[in-house]
Task: structure prediction
Amino acid sequence: MSRSRYLLKNMSLFTISNMASKILVFLLVPLYTNVLSEADYGVADVMQTTLLLLVPLLSLNAGEAALRYGIECADKRGSILKSGMRHVLRSAAIVAVACLGAAAWMLLTGSGREYAGYFLIFILLYAANAVYEFMLLYTQGSEKVEIMISGSICCTFITVISNILMLLVFRLGLYGYLFSQIAAYLISFVLMFRLIGGAGLTGSKEDRELQSEMTGYGRGMLLYSTASWANNAIDRYFILFMLGAAQNGLYGVAYKIPAILMVFQRIFAQSFQMSATKEYREEDAGKFFGELYELYNAVMLTGCAVILLVLKPLAAFMFRKGFYGAWVMVPPLLISVIFGALEGYLGSICLAHKDGKSMGIATGAGAIVNIILNLIAISLFGATGAALATMVSYFTMFAIARYLTGKHVRLEVNIMRNACSYLLILLAGGLTMYLGSLEGGRYGVMMYTADAVTAAVLVILYRRQFAAVAGRLTAGRRARG
Result:
């Protein structure tokens, strides 16, 4: 199978999974914002954000190692599964001890007693999420994408059904929301484990040398994964402690609209990570990776412009009650998704070369910028300041990653066009925030006009990339006809 067909095949499969999942979860947002309070949603958001840090950190990036080595060492996948599950279960035991100790201290001293129950639930939430996320990456690395998709869709389906039951029928509020997540993760993990024949694989002979290499690879990625988490999540904690849980709830809801753009980002990233591992040794890797970069860049920029165009009507549909004001945080968060996606693309190239150090430097620098700017910007602009800090930090790590990737491959891209496009989308985001906050119909017309012009200009600038995709799709249909 050619590399283009391999990439497109995986993208089509991941599209089915991600689109089905995101559409259903997208439709649940009005339910969450109608049933849960801003403070409840803020607590849940912090718990989910904490998972993003602890799972890769405590499991030594077992899932990423399983993905990387599963593709390269197809005959040793049983040993890869055993090694990864061992790290994941060990990390769950560490979390259980820590959370039980914290809950016991709260109950005995009376300090923060109302939060003790959340620590106990977090034990189950961590264990369920850790095994689920590991199995997703393991099945992807084993090139069993169909099984991975089955698990992802199952997780979404269980989430939808259980949320309706827990929130509307039993009215369990935040506890119901969390129990719904736990059930979805566990059931989906069991499904994937059985479909891939996990019981038989864990009985295979262990390869100690491979397991040691995987552990070293995972440890080498700790700076990268931890700094990536900081860029994704540290703003939530600053908002929580500086502004309170209610503002953090608004900020968490604001991320639901950028999640639309993240659907394509996730589809492409999952597919490209597999392709990069297979293709990074090829002589024409620079040309191949450069063409994909330009197309990826074009879609992310144009997608951002289109979402800016429909932002306020979309926010009116999704954000109920006191959540509507969160729309103003969306433009910088959308732009941060673009730079985060491009940095992730470059990161896949580095990780294919087993160079986690370079990406650790890029994300570490971004995290430092994020922390410094959060302290300043939140004090000046509230939660919107956190969104602006996130945008700047993502651009920082993208710029550094772009430079460091050059030692592995020289991407054949149009630097001047890309730079102009980034300036254009920054201008459009700023105008949307400013004009959208002013009262009066003429300002709304000006905002929509600016966003429409931005989208049109981006389509013109990247017309060759879009035309190439259209041509390939047309040729594919003719071949099937």
